[in-house]
Write a structure and sequence with these properties.
Elements lengths: L1 E4 L8 E5 L6 E6 L10 H10 L3 E6 L3 E2 L10 E2 L7 H27 L6 E6 L1 H12 L6 E5 L15 E7 L8 H11 L6 E6 L8 H13 L3 H15 L9
Parallel strand pairs: 3-4, 3-7, 7-8, 8-9, 9-10
Antiparallel strand pairs: 1-2, 2-4, 5-6
Helix pairs in contact: 2-3
Length: about 250
């Protein structure tokens, strides 16, 4: 069971908290451009049904959407006006310090460490999550990037964060080639730990097929750093000099 913590959906983050006890995991959700925090609450409820001890917080885009006319509830993390392709890295970089500070503030307030935090972004929210980790490796233990992309491909792979890409093959907004290119690029970098799931015939949406893939990754994918730590422990235990054994 969960409790909802919310205020004005036009301006505030929305939280789903465990009914009893302190949360043990933190899932931060970032919506796409033109949406708002309330739009990802259904996703939040699905996630918390599988992780009942988690705090699930849907974050609100910092600025009103400056695109087509709307009722005032639409938000954005950065503007999509003008030459977005050329300016995207700078636009994301401008908002990253605030976003990273907010992530750390939620972690500190709830007493949850980086390894127990996941950033879950859709579209523009996924761009923000990927770029935040590219600039701050280990800010979260995992990123779930739905229908997203990098603003610019990273120079090095994160060592402390596992990346999961989820994309529809027929996405007309952010074509799936961006996710494929990211995976190919990461595979060439030392220490990369990333997965990709592509749903055939699916467009730019949080489709149930991709949600099922995400739940599977969260519950079955063991991060590479965990394997490496285990193998290191085995090697230390077998060493003549001794060392800690696996528990």
């Amino acid at each position: 069971m969960t409790t909802d913590s919310r205020t004005d959906t036009h301006t505030a983050d929305l939280a789903l908290m465990p009914r009893t006890g302190a949360p043990r995991q933190l899932l931060l959700l970032m919506h796409g451009v033109g949406a708002n925090a309330a739009n990802l609450l259904p996703l939040g409820r699905v996630l918390q049904a599988h992780f009942p001890e988690a705090a699930v917080i849907s974050l609100q885009g910092y600025d009103p959407f400056d695109g087509m006319p709307h009722d005032g509830s639409a938000r954005q993390w950065f503007s999509i006006r003008g030459d977005v392709e050329a300016d995207r890295p700078a636009r994301v970089a401008a908002v990253l310090p605030r976003f990273v500070a907010d992530v750390r503030a939620h972690q500190q307030r709830l007493g949850i460490g980086e390894a127990a935090t996941a950033l879950v972004g859709f579209s523009q929210g996924a761009i923000l999550a990927l770029e935040a980790i590219a600039a701050n490796d280990g800010l979260a233990g995992r990123v779930l990037a739905f229908s997203g992309r990098y603003a610019s491909l990273p120079a090095q792979a994160p060592k402390l964060t596992t990346l999961h890409f989820f994309h529809g093959s027929a996405d007309p907004v952010i074509p799936v080639r961006h996710a494929k290119d990211a995976m190919q690029h990461l595979a060439q970098l030392e220490g990369s730990d990333a997965t990709i799931d592509i749903a055939e015939g699916i467009g730019h949406e949080l489709h149930a097929t991709l949600l099922d893939c995400a739940l599977h990754r969260l519950t079955h994918h063991i991060p590479m750093r965990t394997w490496q730590a285990a193998l290191g422990g085995v090697a230390a235990a077998a060493s003549p000099n001794g060392g800690e054994t696996l528990q």
